[in-house]
Amino acid sequence: MNTATFRFYEELNDFLPAGKRKIRFPVSFENRPAIKDAIESLGVPHTEIEVILVNQVSVDFSYRLNDNDDVAVYPVFESFDITPLLRLRTRPLRTTAFICDVHLGRLCRMLRILGFDTLYRNDYEDNEIVSIAQQEGRIVLTRDRGILKHKAVSHGYCVRSSDWRRQAREVIRRFDLSHSLHPFSICVSCNGRVAKVSKSAVIGCLQEKTKRYYDNFSRCQACGKIFWEGSHYAKLQEFVKELADRA
Fold first, then answer.
1. Element of type H or E holding 37
2. N or C: which end of the chain has fewer CB within 10 A?
3. What is the C-alpha separation between 247 and 240, in angstroms, rounded?
4. What is the SS3 assignment for 219?
5. What's the pLDDT tens digit per position in 173-199?
6. Cα–Cα distance list, 47 to 51, 97, 149, 172 (Å)
């Protein structure tokens, strides 16, 4: 039986039991497992990791553990250029297209309001999510870390909070998106693009009170749904501003 010492940094500690957080701890193993397998056996999905240092040398996921190795594992640094150390991906992901698992319907809606291309269905199977993410270059957002351990998932994030407001803050902060917000440009219903339209172009589809009290309208170019600045609009604007400011 061999032993290596591991230390996980920052938010990676969220996946560890309390007794192993923010400290160096020993891990016993047989033969020479790939370091990716050793890390995920401890509960940390590979999609959360950007840099692994073994004995102070950067390695990739295929590295095979040796007895007495000293391993330091760091999370994704979206806001920093760490190219000299980057070994796990060719580059940090900058394509802000997401796919959410079945537990994140409200987060999906909020991301669309913020202007991000986000797929969601309440009947997605895990293998569908993985396949779509791989084919379309999407970031997997999930509450199930098991999805993120799938080898085919290159970029993803395990959402910690169960509250959709906090979830939105997490995602904006995690992927450094505070300067990429384009509010109200994506349809919350179908993920299509929304464009401004004149009142005269949609007046035949409006109810009497909407005709009377509102003048600014948009329409989804995919499903045709019409949007206007109703009573909820000011609250959404306030939340968008808060996200940008806090991020």
1. helix 35-41
2. N
3. 11
4. strand
5. 888 888 888 999 999 999 999 999 999
6. 11, 16, 7, 17
